[in-house]
Amino acid sequence: xxxxxxxxxxxxxxxxxxxxxxxxxxxxxxxxxxxxxxxxxxxxxxxxxxxxxxxxxxxxxxxxxxxxxxxxxxxxxxxxxxxxxxxxxxxxxxxxxxxxxxxxxxxxxxxxxxxxxxxxxxxxxxxxxxxxxxxxxxxxxxxxxxxxxxxxxxxxxxxxxxxxxxxxxxxxxxxxxxxxxxxxxxxxxxxxxxxxxxxxxxxxxxxxxxxxxxxxxxxxxxxxxxxxxxxxxxxxxxxxxxxxxxxxxxxxxxx
Length: 255
Description:
Structural class: mainly beta
Number of helices: 2
Distance between the termini: 36 Å
Shape: globular
Number of strands: 13
Strand content: over 45%
């Protein structure tokens, strides 16, 4: 409980900082998420973070899931996982050169506005300098924590989380980040509206009137129960990547 309270205090402090302490100008770059992970599931279950659907059985197994940029955006904005993402709405990485603060946000390329903040990158340790192989590109190798903020709606949301980040940062000589390539692992809390389908079957044996070795067992669905509700699922993120770079999308100015 003490550890949970400590993490809660960190998250609250960071969120207050995004309101009261984020004054400044940040460069904005498109961020691509390619996250793979695992959740607790049923033996015959399929939980789809793209469609918000599930089939459920009683057996407990470990299910694999994939979370892409669109899924993160929908969860962060509180919209349905099946909703298409407008072309002007992107997952983005911000870098404030003056304060050395970096955030993962949802960004509107038309209005130049931040729609919501997903998380804050907190450096743990880094080394910086020119890459030895060409002595030309300046950058950092950084270990950091990405603290995920609760954001979204009652039906669809990110509920928090903590990702450990091993990042390769391309920077200007003044420290301004231009590109990010990162390996991430940790936990990601999600909450989304799910349609559950339960199948009730009976086993029917057919022997074709002859040898018992020709018998086959078939599952015949005799009833289907469909219900809906909110699934609160913590995803264990493993061997996943964030990447950004290329042309700067814009400049985010916050009061």
